[in-house]
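Submission checklist for the structure archive. All mandatory fields must be present; incomplete records are returned to the submitter.

[x] Identifier: NAD(P)-binding Rossmann-like domain-containing protein
[x] Organism: Raineyella antarctica
[x] Residue count: 424
[x] Sequence attached
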Amino acid sequence: MTSGDPDPRAAITVVGGTLAGMAAAARLAKRGHRVTLLHDDRPLAADWRPRSPEDPGPLPGVLAFPAPWRDLFKKSGRILPAELARAGLDLVAAPPVHHVFADGEELVLGGDRGAQFHQMEAAYGRPTAEAWRDLVDSLEPVWQLVRNLGLETSLESSAQLRPHRRALGWGRSVAELAATQPHPHLRALVEESAWRRGHDPARTPSFVAARLSVERTFGRWMVVDAAGRPAGSDRLLDLLEERLRTRRVEVVGGAGAVRIGGSPRRPDGRGNGNGAPLDALVLAGHLDDPVAAYGLRTRAARRVAALAPVVGPRRRFAPGRPVEGVVETVEHATRRISWTTTERTAVHDWGDPVPDPGHGPAWDGPGTWLRMLPVRLGERVYSAGPWGRGGNDLAAVLMSAALATYAAHLDLTGLDTHPSNKDQ
């Protein structure tokens, strides 16, 4: 191609300098598209970074499911271990979680299936340990279902859910699942799977508790420097920002608003916030109300605008104390989670939460699922972020960007790059 020839690559605009927007932009650029990332005047990934010197930000100090991070870096260039090593960092196993219950009793819980059983048996006796083991075992097949219903594969209609309603425990809440446990501490552990993500356990479907199986299977991880000291999970955000530069994504700050004029099913003639023409659009910010934000007038946009947002914790820093690595403490009575290092403690207080539209919709029963945003919002218009059907936790946000990439690349090129396509 000479300098005077038109660029044959598809022009894709990603709207929103969110974590989902950055991840989608990096993936799409690696696929050979010309990608422009539009964002406001805040730093990239501001939805997960500290908001002020007194605010540690939403990003947890320990990562419970690092596989989506690894997949993101693998599918956008240099693999994560190599990128971490180049920055003098590493991802290593984190210490077990320290739980403090309403009665003042404490439990240190972590590790694989066998380790958790022995920890439970030492604390409560064999019958309670067996109950916990059996509960988490029962959630493993639920996780296998959930991961293919919005996380690793797009959830597009009720037809995908209908055959699995019984296995998913349709109509049963996290609180009701917790109530089946024989010990109050086990009940608290189950309910935590909902409230730490901003949801009411009484309104959250029980299949959300499948994350307990994920943590037991994949472990808990922390980012450390070359000396083994905690370096902070936000270093991954810095590496992703560098990946955008490597992939030559055009990052435009302070960009004008993007409005989808006319029908979302007639994409010809669209432009991005700077007036440049585009072939596809990925919306990765302000998805709590895409009608108001983008003029997107579809049934899906109207339905998601009617959902209430999750609640977020009040966050602050507290003094650190001499510990090894990053110690996560969950205080169940006050719904407070903290991550302590020798230098400082980041506190997330869910006991006095505030609405947090930047981090997705709140569950209000299983019917909420299909009111969340699908990946395809219109002809060559896609969504990525916590308002999607994969959920609002950190791993789900990263995986939503992968789904948007697969869909856009398929629609623009006819090539199916989803991992399930063995012929790619």
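[x] Structure attached
Curator remark: Residues 106-213 form one domain. The chain has two domains: 1-88+234-310+360-424, 106-213.
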